[in-house]
Amino acid sequence: MELFNPTTSEFAEFDARTRELLRATVEYFEGRGKNQLLADHRDRVWYADFLDFVKREKVFATFLTPAALAEGNPDKRWDTARIARMSQILGFYGMEYWYVWQVTVLGLAPIWQSRNEVARRRAANLLDSGGIFAFGLSEQAHGADVYSTDMLLTPRAAGGFVANGSKYYIGNGNAAAMVSTFGRRTDASVVDVSAALGRISDDEYAGYLFFAADPTADGYRLRKNVVDSQMYVAAFDLEDYPVDDDAVLHTGREAFDAAMNTVNVGKFNLGFGAIGACEHAMYEAIDHADRRILFGQRVTEFPQVQSLVTDSFGRLAAMKLYSERAVDYMRSAHAGDRRYLLVSAIEKMTVTRQGQRIYEDLADVIAARGFENDMYFPNGMQAMLGLPRLEGTVHVNMALALKFMPNYMFHPTDAGLAALRSVPGAGRAPSAVIDPLAEALRWSGRAVAPVVPRLRSETAKTAPQDVRVRREPSDDTFLFKQGPSSRLGKIRFGRWREAFDGFAHIPNVAVFTEQAAAFQVLLATAAPTDEQQRDVDFLFAIGELFTLIPYGQLILEQADIDDADPAVVDHIFDLLVREFSRHAVTLNGKPTATPEQQTRSLNLIRRPIADPARKAAVLARARALVGAYEMAP
Fold first, then answer.
1. Element (DSSP H or E) covering residue 96
2. Where is the Acyl-CoA dehydrogenase/oxidase C-terminal domain (predicted)?
């Protein structure tokens, strides 16, 4: 696992034009210099110079135009792998620059999903001319609640609509070429989510509408920037704003789905922005700490600092391994394999929070130096607080992830575990009794699956386990053809144990596998009750445990692809064992936890296997970063 280093990175996994634009972006920032970037940040200077570079080099146009609208340009495509790499680079140099890119991604997604060829062509032309875009979903009263909107569209007798309402938290709303805006018709119904029971009919979605607004047109009133920042997060009003038919992007259920599917695409980039920010912070922190002498020792020789540095390096390695593998799942998605929805939720939720934790720990390493005005660190620290809260809060993404838990945790060959529910006292039995029984039931399920017709049939329906590495230059068209944002409980997963079994020789992977298996037993013997399933606070504790397992799975899949350093992998799982145990204690302490859940949650707690030699090896990897990179002044 290597950190991104602007002085040495060649982006060899990409085609020539992609390498050229990524390198040009790095050279733009290095040429502008750290002092100027920090001054622009402090003075809240709109990044017109950066956007001039984007226009001149056609960076956004090349990376964000689908091949179908490229007019024969072979370099234009929507390629998740290179979009992710650009997100990482921009996060490395400043989250403001990442933000203008990210909001453009969000603003374009409803347009690329639309069947409105006039709007699509217009967007492609504006993008080619250097335009940026905005996503007009959020409102001050409702946040990003996609069910609720007070942007009202009244039909006109001659066709089209008149729009009236306000939007809030709209990045790029001051200068966007087009603003993809979500609203509701005054002559049709929308979902009353407080009264919705069971499946919602298409008629209940009839009133939703997505349209493209023009910030230069009459009726578009820019009110203010709602943040004190270099980025512009707009509040704007539409007052008797005319919406012609050729500006309508989606209506009814398609409009609702376009909003949800846009977030599925856009939130994936948050983790890569966090990775870039953490990489820059790691360089600064380790440089300062290793060169500073206190009480006759380098700061990196203090035991508490060594623990902070090795943990931070391990967390960053985990973020990078997971994210690289997540790219493959996103690019391999199709209507029959929607595992990307879980992968993307974890990318947004877990990776960004791990980045926040890295900044918290590195703040104790870099100390007062991290507050000085010639450092990137304070800018990144402020931004890292925001990333977990963009494109849906952690709670929203956790609720989404939990929808996948039954199918992820229980492969058809685990059907034998259902027998645990009929074992008297299984929920409170000692682990020495229940764990061997559970393992025997798992083994029997795998053994009989090929000969039991129903199990054989269910196993055949399971999504294929293998996802190949996807770095070829191709267009990820499915991301704009995701379809309805429903039937999540039907999504199939492969056997999560296979990735872990391949690394059973690594001590802390083996310990974590025990914890994951014990969690499976908890779900089998002490599943959340109907009342608990309506308790978001309780479910959040369950979700924290669950999401660490697919996080670990993809880390190991990428570690296998990269032939990763076993010491780093072992330390990553030392961290995961500790986090799993911490969340188990939280679950045990929930007031609403049943006695069975309290017992089984304590069975999840494990002590990671300490290895001084492994820790020293990881620390040496981190200290090798000293002097490897420092941004040009």
1. helix 95-113
2. 256-400
